[in-house]
Amino acid sequence: APLIDWFAAQGYQVGDNRPYDARVLGGHTLECHALRRNLAHVLFEVRNNEIGTARQQQEWGERLHRAIVETRFGMHD
Description:
The longest helix is centred in the last third of the chain and has 18 residues, at 54-71. α1 packs across α4. The chain is mainly α. It has helices spanning 2-9, 22-25, 28-35, 54-71. 49% of the residues lie in helices and 0% in strands. The chain has one domain. The chain contains 4 helices and no strands.
């Protein structure tokens, strides 16, 4: 998966559906806003200790944006 590969290449520890599998958890957000509409989607989970300060939150926001833009979310033109 392009996003997982991107984060791994940056040195981050990543897991595909670990420790939770969003495919079996269910939940309103993905189901209602993405799956039912057949939209590409992704769910990120970031540990609380990584986003405890405003600066960390800003850095993670920029990082997630860069990852999505650079991988084009794994989509093809």
